[in-house]
Amino acid sequence: MSGRAPLIVHPALGTGGREVTARGEDLGVAFSDEDLLEFLGRAGLPDAEDLLDDPAWVKWRGGQAHYYGAA
User: Contact at 8 Å (CB) between 45 and 51?
Assistant: First the structure.
């Protein structure tokens, strides 16, 4: 790893949900941790529950971790 978390959860959108990117690639909009786990599973990490709070894997930007509501 290059010292940066590979998964970025961006600030909540005005309509709810948070954009998610992995190494610059858009994965979609997550509306829950379950959505985020789905993205990680598609990336080859099926047992990723413990990674959501690991800053080496996930960077939560512009808001509280695990919060997906409107900004």
Answer: yes
The pLDDT value recorded for residue 26 is: 92
Distance separating alpha carbons of residues 62 and 17, to the nearest angstrom: 13
Residue whose structure tokens are 């789905």: 38
- Residues 54 and 18 sit within 8 Å (Cβ to Cβ): no
Query: Which 3 state secondary structure label does DSSP give 27?
Result: strand
Please enumerate in sequence order all residues whose Cβ is within 8 A of that of 36, keeping only pairs 6 or more positions apart, or say none. Answer: 7, 9, 20, 30, 52, 58
Cβ contact 39:30 at 8 Å: yes
* Whole-angstrom distance, CA of residue 38 vs CA of residue 67: 16
Structure tokens at 17: 């949900």
Identify the residue with better confidence: 3 or 39.
39
